[in-house]
Amino acid sequence: MKWGVVRFPGSLDDFDALHALRDLLDQDAELLWHKDPSLRGAECIVLPGGFSYGDYLRCGAIARFAPIMESVARFAADGGLVIGICNGFQILCEAHLLPGALTRNRSLSFICDWAFVRVENAGTPFTRAAKAREILRLPIKHGEGCYVAPANELAGMEERGQVLLRYVDAEGHESDQANPNGSMHAIAGIANGRFNVFGLMPHPEHAVEKMLGGEDGLKIFRSMVGASA
Amino acid sequence: MQARIYVTPRKGILDPQGRAVEGALKSLGLTGVESVHVGRYIVVELDAPSQAAGEELVRKMCGDLLANPNIEDYRFEVDA
């Protein structure tokens, strides 16, 4: 499967995504430059983590206007698979490819830690390699990860199963303490209504080998290999 | 022509920054603080044919980029 990993000025995790895809999943993955609107035939797009455009104005707000984003929006509208990780999630929200927004962590602190997330919907192209209600252990590292959306929007998303990952404790229970950033409904990752665009704050690309502390992240990418929305 | 734009956290949206500043003001012993909201102040120099055209332009800027309607409100003033 052909993957394109978009690099914006300030992207940090593009190489980790390439490593996960190429070296561990034997995928054909290449970097795409933000100024070049061509997706080079990619069947799957990754918007990686980092601090695109220095997080100026709002995280992801400027990246949304990069020339490549018009192509990404068209690709998504045609049903192509897009995953946005951390800053990529913020960009997808700013680009209105996903509902809601990501705001300053409740603690006001940048968080760098491991988090447990529960797979709330295992019937999607992004989660089908996991079991329903499975607990994944993934790293988080962000200052603006508090997910916010209007109450009626949230209710609709919950009903349609668009909440794919929710922060829980190691036993899989929801609690205020297990919610690292204050996200509404403890949301860690959501999909659009068509289930071909996925955004998440945790970093699956950093958890792909035992020596990195865990390999639960592979389940996300494995789900996407060969998937279509 | 100059536009001065004020972007503030939308009412009802968690504003941890405002709350932290509120706490700091109170810890200074300053009484009479009810609440604090921290936002963003943007100044744009405009070249527009009229006040109305300038306002229209700023409204578009705010809607498209300067504010995120999911989480922020904005208001602005435009003058020659």
Please describe what this structure looks like.
The complex is a heterodimer of chains A (229) and B (80). Chain A has 229 residues and is an alpha/beta fold. Chain A has a single domain (2-224), classed as 3-Layer(aba) Sandwich (Rossmann fold), CATH 3.40.50.880. Chain A is built from 5 helices and 11 strands. Chain A has a 9-stranded mixed beta sheet, sandwiched between helices. A two-stranded antiparallel ribbon of chain A has the order 5-8. In chain A, helix 1 links the parallel strand 1 (2-7) and strand 2. The longest helix of chain A is centred in the N-terminal third of the chain and has 11 residues, at 14-24. The model of chain A has no long low-confidence stretch (mean pLDDT 96). Chain B has one domain: Mth169, Chain: A, CATH 3.30.1280. Chain B contains 2 helices and 3 strands. Chain B has helices spanning 16-27, 51-66; strands at 2-9, 40-45, 72-79. In chain B, strands 2-1-3 form a 3-stranded antiparallel beta sheet, covered by helices on one side. The longest helix of chain B has 16 residues, at 51-66. Chain B is elongated, with a radius of gyration of 16 Å. At the A-B interface, loops of A face helix 1 of B.
